[in-house]
Design goal:
- The chain is 24% helix and 35% strand.
- It has 229 residues and is α+β, with helices and mostly antiparallel strands.
- The strands form two sheets. Strands 1, 2, 4, 5, 7, 8, 11 and 14 form an eight-stranded antiparallel beta sheet that branches. Strands 3, 6, 9, 10, 12 and 13 form a six-stranded antiparallel beta sheet that branches.
- It starts with 5 loop residues before the first helix and ends in a 5-residue tail after the last strand.
- This is 2OG-Fe(II) oxygenase.
- Belongs to the iron/ascorbate-dependent oxidoreductase family.
Length: 229
Amino acid sequence: MRALDWQQIEDELNQYGCAVVPALLAADACAALAAQYEESARFRSRVVMQRHGFGQGEYQYWAYPLPQPVAELRAALYPPLAAIANRWHASMGIDSRFPVAHGDFLARYHAAGQTRPTPLLLRYREGDYNCLHQDLYGEHVFPLQLAVLLSRPHEDFTGGEFVLTEQRPRMQSRLEVVPLAQGDAVLFPVAQRPVNGTRGSYRVNMRHGVSRLRSGLRHTLGIIFHDAS
């Protein structure tokens, strides 16, 4: 994986609540991952969103062992994100800290009973959408996650924008629409992030979703760094 400007990424996360990483995956890698959606043996479970009130569309959670590109991204991105997460926890007055290596992080959470892998592959068809939500999966949560667009906007699909909302205390929600090209990734909070105010840092609640697909077929890779209980 190419070197990333982590200072810029952290600055954008702190300022906007998200950071885009252009061309994190090449087009052939995107197509190969999207094609796995039809290989049910690779996945531990499939969720049809409308059955649960999550929206419309569906997604599948990979089983262990994860596909090599997914496992490599999860392991490589975790250490710099853990450094950001530790600074966020300190800023929000949260005592827990995250180890440097993702393997050590998973071992800690697996010992606490969160053992089911959470990286997922999402599929949207015309009319599908994903309601605003948070990917928590258990008591123990890593505060940052990643989504990679695997399809080509305006060629494979139209619509289907990635959306973030931020709710600050005693204020109306702020909306962020994140344009992505194939292979682009967006880093964003799972549930909360710190914001600097006149009296120091305070927590804001974040949710994310996907707007209605106008046409075509859209696949997305989601990487959550904690596993599910």
